[in-house]
Write a structure and sequence with these properties.
13 helices; 345 residues
Length: 345
């Protein structure tokens, strides 16, 4: 099955079919699927393709916009012509310049900052049914123009000082937003559903998500055994800020070199010390559900600790090793294996 390209740290795009096969091989009975840490929506997308009823959840509103565009917006609602209009200032409309003023020299060139300012404000004036698709192409374009596709470092210099001997996709970095908007509009229309499937998109933290399902999929942030963690919020705060454009100035942490926008910053599943407690509380929400959890062999806590935690909640727990997978955004752990837990009563 052809799947959308994802540019998200820890995305399971390479593994969704293997996860599906493992579930099919066990003949587990379920119709409803809850994606608690929805991220790119790739697991939800795959489940919808297989005819399941899906609830997508994510703590970040920008991820929910991506999911709404991909899973719940009909094909053709947003066109190349619509995308081209986004970049143009509308005569008589008053624009703020928060990105250009606050983030000068941090993530993008000045002309690119101005474009982002314009687009983020133009989206607010679109019809509701087009807004998610417009955010989708803006986010994908912003991500692909960033070294490592992330926002936790102030590293525009990697683009500006690029030489042929340096790493990175310089050609992609230097593509204009108009070109990227056209590319991602066509990509989105390729993967959107002709008819909207049975999907609900909700925007909660994992521990506050009220939804339940026959099968609950858990893909928490990972902690490396040997190093300190960078939160998902820090990696993607910039995109979350764009959804709440007018709130950016009052939520910037000027003490951080990357000027993190602290909208929707949360401590859930972002602390090694509290991880097992957070997971235990989450599992308490789903006493009757099949639990499927993605993990990594190089993560903290250990595989054995997670298995023991799951056994406190479910009678049957299986641990499946998928072998070594090198992800484009995380090549530091050459010996890591992707792991899947399947737990049920």
């Amino acid at each position: 099955m052809e799947l959308p390209v994802t540019r998200y740290y820890g995305s399971k795009r390479k593994l969704v079919e293997k996860i599906w096969e493992e579930l099919e091989n066990r003949h587990l009975e379920y119709q409803s699927f809850l994606d608690v840490f929805g991220g790119t929506g790739i697991m939800s997308y795959n489940m919808l393709k297989h005819g399941k009823d899906v609830v997508y959840n994510d703590i970040f509103t920008f991820n929910c916009k991506i999911a709404e565009a991909l899973l719940a917006s009909p094909r053709g609602v947003f066109t190349n012509q619509d995308a081209a209009q986004l970049i143009l200032p509308v005569e008589g409309r008053e624009y703020q310049h928060f990105i250009e003023e606050i983030f000068r020299g941090i993530y993008y060139r000045n002309d690119e900052d101005r474009t982002i300012d314009t687009v983020a404000q133009n989206i607010l004036h679109l019809p509701q049914e087009q807004q998610a698709s417009a955010y989708y192409i803006l986010f994908q374009s912003c991500i692909i123009k960033r070294p490592f596709n992330l926002f936790h470092r102030r590293n525009l210099n990697l683009r500006e000082n690029h030489t042929e001997s340096n790493f990175g996709n310089y050609v992609t970095w230097e593509k204009g937003f108009e070109t990227l908007f056209r590319q991602f509009t066509e990509e989105l229309n390729q993967f959107q559903f002709q008819q909207i499937p049975n999907v609900e998109i909700v925007n909660h933290s994992a521990l506050e998500c009220p939804n339940v399902a026959d099968l609950v999929y858990i893909d928490t942030p990972y902690f490396n055994k040997k190093s300190s963690a960078v939160s998902y919020h820090s990696r993607y705060h910039f995109l979350e800020g764009l959804v709440f454009y007018n709130d950016i100035p009052n939520n910037v942490n000027y003490n951080k070199v990357n000027r993190e926008i602290e909208i929707h910053k949360s401590s859930e599943f972002e602390s090694k010390a509290n991880y097992l407690n957070d997971l235990n509380e989450l599992l308490d929400h789903y006493p009757d559900s099949i639990i499927v959890m993605s993990y990594t062999s190089e993560g903290y806590p250990s595989i054995e600790e997670l298995e023991a935690q799951l056994r406190r909640h479910k009678q049957h727990v299986e641990v499946i090793f998928f072998g070594k997978y090198n992800f484009a955004l995380n090549r530091s752990n050459q010996n890591r294996q992707e792991v899947l837990f399947i737990a049920y009563n």
